[in-house]
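Why does residue order matter? Because the sequence determines the fold. Keep that principle in mind as you read this record.
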Amino acid sequence: MALIRTTAEDKATRMEEKQAKKEQRIIDPDKIDELTRKIITRMPYKAHGCRFHSFVVYFSNIQRLCWVEPSGREEPSEFQGHFPNGQPRKYFRLTKAGKEAAMDAWLNPLRALYGRKP
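Structure:
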């Protein structure tokens, strides 16, 4: 959902900037929020799914923030067909820092790691 929301916010911001410039007015944050909600509801079904690479990047960021930790529980995993067993499936749990992190930080852990661009 963080990826969907970020994509929608970026698109909504660009649209509002363009419209404000055209109408020679200041940018309205409320209009950006309204456009973001509309864009999210109109996104195609495929855009709602998290791609594996996106998940790997997201999860590595929350690990670097120490919001999750290994629980110690593992179980074997297998591929379909006649392939050898894969790496064990590892389970994680939220840390105290992860539970206390703000929703905005969860929506964009990269920003939580490095801050906003100047």
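DSSP finds six helices and two strands in the chain.
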